[in-house]
């Protein structure tokens, strides 16, 4: 299952500012930044219930 994610407005602004900063340094750095964020969001989306399952299983 895939999930859709939406950045909080402050996080969106931070992301855009960071992307501009990286792009000013190096286009490769900017591409790597975007790839890293995308991969992290996919990982979070694919494991988003892991923490909830872990809490339920802990006896709390």
Treating each run of at least 4 consecutive H or I residues as one helix, how many helices? 3
Low-pLDDT sequence parts:
none
Question: What is the overall silhouette?
Answer: flat
Strand content bin: under 5%
Q: Classify the secondary structure makeup into a structural class.
A: mainly alpha
State the end-to-end distance: 28 Å
Q: State the share of residues found in helices, binned by percent.
A: over 70%
Number of strands: 0
> How confident overall, as mean pLDDT?
83
Radius of gyration: 16 Å
Largest sheet, described in full?
Answer: none
Order of helices and strands: HHH
If you had to describe this structure to a student in words, what would you say it looks like?
This protein has 60 residues and is mainly alpha-helical. Helix content is 75%, strand content 0%. The chain has helices at residues 9-25, 27-46, 50-57. Helix 1 (9-25) runs antiparallel to helix 2 (27-46). The chain starts with 8 loop residues before the first helix and ends with a helix. The mean pLDDT is 83.
List key phrases describing it.
mainly alpha
Secondary structure layout:
Layout: H1 9-25, H2 27-46, H3 50-57
Helix pairs in contact: 1-2
């Amino acid at each position: 299952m895939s999930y859709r994610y939406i950045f909080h407005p402050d996080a969106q602004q931070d992301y855009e500012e960071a992307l501009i900063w990286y792009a000013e340094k190096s286009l490769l750095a900017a591409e790597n930044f975007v790839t890293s964020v995308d991969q992290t969001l996919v990982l979070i989306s694919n494991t988003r219930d892991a923490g909830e399952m872990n809490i339920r299983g802990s006896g709390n």
